[in-house]
Design a protein that fits this description.
single chain, alpha/beta, globular
């Protein structure tokens, strides 16, 4: 993979690195020679899979340092950023990939108050799935760990501009995440760091399977997509690996659709 030599030996921080998009991105970047710092939140039952992901990353010859922590916990964030400073010798990360999928899937309105989303649940969903991108960027920036030429990618979806039952809080978080990418692109431009949102097509991930009605969503997307299939995590991982290269420095502030043409079909 000589065309990817520009990123070999660098580091990437992947938030949500143990499954779905984060897992695929970590492995593909590692194959391109990128060392991975992964942040994930897993209980004992899913830790065997996390160990498999770490093994796959290390099998490429790249380093893998994973932290089982709540990415929205400010103290943990500061602690992990301190470890990144040590790991990279103060050089920082070439890529920050935000792929956190943890939010409340409840309707705004229900007959019984207990059945509709609460203020705390709304705030938590936005904090984890959107605002945490800003806080991680701030922590890296404050310690000079976002060097010139760095990349920020955040995983969004068509749900940021569309509606689906019980998806309201997540939809709002995705819309906010896209806005945060635009603002970060503006403020980081003079520092030579880019920020883009990646809008994946409907992808069969553990996060999607938690959405009520996901079977119907998968069926509709499969029929609608002109490519005749769903997007896969590896489709996204390949694109991010490509965009991590030096030649994409002028691409920033965008919502980039990676969906095989799904979103253009009415």
């Amino acid at each position: 993979m000589t065309q990817l030599s520009t990123i070999r030996g660098r580091w990437a921080l992947v938030l949500g690195a143990s499954s779905g998009f984060g897992e695929a991105i970590s492995i593909r970047l590692a194959e391109a020679g990128v060392n991975i710092v992964g942040v994930h939140l897993d209980r004992k039952g899913t830790m065997p899979h996390v160990e498999e992901v770490i093994s796959k990353v290390r099998a490429t010859g790249s380093q893998a340092v994973y932290f089982n922590a709540n990415a929205s916990d400010a103290e943990k964030r500061i602690e992990i950023v301190g470890e990144i400073e040590k790991l990279t010798g103060g050089k920082g990360v070439h890529g920050l990939i935000h792929s956190l999928a943890f939010g409340t899937l409840k309707p705004f309105l229900a007959k019984e108050p207990k059945d509709h989303i609460s203020q705390d649940q709304m705030n938590m969903t936005s904090d984890v799935m959107a605002h945490s991108l800003v806080y991680w960027t701030q922590s890296l920036f404050e310690r000079n760990l976002l060097p010139r030429g760095g990349r920020i990618f955040a995983m969004t979806s068509s749900g940021g501009a569309r509606v689906w039952p019980s998806y309201g809080a997540v939809s709002a978080a995705k819309a906010a995440l896209e806005s945060h990418c635009r603002q970060l692109a503006l403020e980081l431009a003079s520092h030579g760091v880019t920020a883009n949102a990646i809008r994946a097509g409907v992808t069969d991930t553990p996060a999607l399977r938690k959405i009520p009605g996901n079977e119907e969503m998968i069926e509709i997307a499969t029929k609608r997509n002109p490519s005749g299939r769903l997007t896969t995590p590896d489709d996204i991982a390949l694109m991010i690996t490509l965009l991590m290269q030096n030649g994409s420095t002028w691409l920033t502030g965008n919502v980039i659709g990676v969906d095989g043409g799904e979103d253009i079909v009415g």
